Amino acid sequence: MISISSAFNAFREELDVHHDRRERLIKASRDITNLSKKTIFLLHRLALESLADADDGRRTSAAAKGYANLCEVQSLYASLRNELAGDRFWRYHQQVSPGLQEYIEALSFTHFLEHRSLIPFETVQRSLSDADRVPYLPLTTSDYLLGLSDLTGELMRLAISGIAQRGGRKQAMEICTFVRNCKADFEGFTPHVRELSKKQAVTSSSLEKIEDAAYAIVLRGSEYDLPPEMLDDIVASTIAQKRHDFGLDHGEEIAV
Amino acid sequence: MDANDLETINASLDFDSDLREKIRDQVTVFDKKTRTMVGLFNKIHSTPSDEIPKLLDTVRPVLSSCAVITAGFAEIIPQDQFWRWKDMWSNSLRTAVFAATLLQYLTDGTLMPLSTVSSNLGIQEEWAGRFVLPAEDYLHGLISLVNELSRLAVNAVTLGNFQEPIKISLFVKEIFAGFAQLNLKNDTLRRRYDSLKYDIKKIEEVVYDVSLRKLAAPNQPTHP
């Protein structure tokens, strides 16, 4: 029989390996969360700038920048591949999950800007796979749904912050319908996925904010019998005039 | 969400909740078995030492019947998903470890190693990724063992067995020294380990009382 002491020595080694791996994954997950959050901020800036463009060119380029940013996250996951191989993925799922959800949020936001649709499960899994389509880690239904659930909050921000700009009103209406559909789709999953019901409540409040904004758009639009583009033009030219009056149209010169 | 995704997601969620249901059923049976063993072991505190082997014989069949349960787990858990579901049964598993190691201690005074506990519970090597006995659960079981033995040290004296506390003291100290070799994190295992010192203290006090009164025979069984 092996001695008690040597048995415990083996346990120490085993536990140390486990704790160290756990720590590494927590750190990596934090890095991934950070990178994903930065990407989301970048996308908000780019989306706002490209809103006024009639063609989809700049919008697509905003998405392209988002994808490029997220490549860094993907390569992080590639490097974690061994840490999460086999039964390890589920052992450390709790540590990996927050970063994964944030990444899915950023990726789905990018996807939305490009396609105006919800990113399919397969597309997310493929983004986390190597060239031969072998996954770095198995994407779980719950992470996918929880990541998407966060997307609605970003869309609310996008809708509201763009509302004062040309094209923003149309976009807000689009997003309103989109988020409403998301909420309806997710409702059926809530009994199965813990945490989702809490996120559904956040989605509801986001949706309400967008709905209030949409309401105001329709109400104000009805007071003038003009097409929305013309209203945009009136507002834009007023702002431009004021800008000129205040001598603000050469902002950088004043700053000097 | 496109209809295809909706369908696959629903299918996967349904699969998981069915599985959870099945595991829960298994855990209920497992729990019943471990409770039975704990119930039987309760009698050690009032059973004279010469009748202990007979008592242990009633526990053995219950312990070996746990193999059916572990085989059931190994059958339903999908490959590599052991850690996803293990929280559902880890309490029962720890109690099973406790029962197996207590049985061994009362049989020959030795510590049953993890691998033996594992094979006593019918766990097979090829189940890796589906059902295993993790070190953490084994260690939790050992702490329960120490908790129980500290009670036994007191009650053995009541039954007139003055050797037992000394035997227990030597055995438990070795386990305690083992735990001291581990780098524990701030988790439940750590907290339970921290409480072990009170058990040690209790056992030491009994040993002290017994030795002082010269109740233990001079030829103390030396530890192996």
Which sheet architecture does the biggest sheet of chain A show?
Answer: none
List segments of chain B where confidence is low: pLDDT < 50 over at least 5 consecutive residues: none
Count every beta strand of chain A, where a strand is a DSSP E run of 2 or more residues: 0
Shape of chain B: elongated
* SSE topology string of chain A: HHHHHHHHHH
Mean pLDDT of chain A: 87
Amino-to-carboxy terminus distance of chain B: 67 Å
Per CATH, what is the topology of the largest domain in chain B?
Methane Monooxygenase Hydroxylase, Chain G, domain 1
Radius of gyration of chain B: 21 Å
Structural class of chain B: mainly alpha
- Which sheet architecture does the biggest sheet of chain B show? none
SSE topology string of chain B: HHHHHHHH
What is the typical, i.e. mean, pLDDT of chain B?
93
- Report the count of strand segments of chain B: 0
Counted by DSSP, the helix tally of chain A is 10
Structural class of chain A: mainly alpha
Task: Bin the strand percentage of chain B.
Answer: under 5%
Instruction: Please tell me the total number of domains of chain B.
Output: 2
